[in-house]
Design a protein that fits this description.
This protein is an alpha/beta fold and about 350 residues long. Helices cover about 45% and strands about 20% of the residues. It has two domains: about 160 residues, 2-Layer Sandwich (Nucleotidyltransferase, domain 5); about 170 residues, ATPase, nucleotide binding domain (Nucleotidyltransferase, domain 5, 2-Layer Sandwich), CATH 3.30.420.40. Helix 3 links the parallel strand 4 and strand 5. The chain is globular and about 65 Å long.
Amino acid sequence: MKILAIETSCDETAASVVEDGRRVRSSFIHSQVAEHEKYGGVVPEIASRRHTENIIPVVQGALREAGADLAEIDAIAVTAAPGLIGALLVGVNFAKGLAASAQKPLIPVHHIRGHVAANYLASPELEPPFLCLIVSGGHSHIVEVLDYTRYRIVGRTRDDAAGEAFDKAARALGFPYPGGIYLDSIAREGDPAAVKLPRPRVDGAPYDFSFSGLKTAVVNLLHNAAQKGEELPVKDVAASFQKAVVDMLSEKFLAAAEQYGYRRLAVAGGVSANSGLRARLQEECSRRGWELHIPPLSLCGDNAAMIGAQGYYEYLAGNLADMTLNGCASMPVDYTSENLSLYF
């Protein structure tokens, strides 16, 4: 089964052709990072406008790269939630028009489930159940992937997501947008034990995260040094901050795996590209003899191939949409087929 997938939840316009949920026939991405860099973050109105301009050539590029025409496509999958609502609507409305004109089934896909599905593309042997750490700019979750379309949340962030904390700390350190990449790079040259930083915990919720206090601690550290005319070693601050985030993510994730009896683990989302997190989890899982799946860097960021992969399993589960499909800015990752109509 060949699925044409479309992703426009933030600032990447992407399209892909995926076969049977596991094989990427094409992956075409137009990034807006260079344009948003001057503003220090994504400007939603600009992102929506660029999606409108780019979606036709991007979809055409994906079909051309796959060596396929629309007649060979069996279904259209599109990210319908969560994300920037204006950006989502560009992809959703384009996919609706395409599905209607070509008389193809329309599959709404949850963006974060797509990130999890990136592991199916990277590891064709991976099947649920497994425990997954989802870490991105807007989400930090520990979830049981019970089946391809059935999730149970074990832990989640109570405030900032890990990626958001990385970007805000990076901005305070003077790095350009997107700051998390620069912080990761410079952290490799610093001493992770040089600066003492907190590891906040949530009382009564051992697997929930809280990154706001850690981010604030770094910002206050830098402000206090500036007021005193002192210059802090940026490399050491970056390394110490990254270690704190990695400690919090990995310790809770591994502890949850122990408690719930999982020996098959996966990581998903943009922050899964972080070198410190990848190294720590690979080391810990190798030492325990556990199975760990992490997508290659090319599949960690937003892309349409992951949407096509998850779209295949949503199709098999019967989670289809009609021409009333709308975008949804916020939606839990553990929704079920029974309550799908509450969101779409």
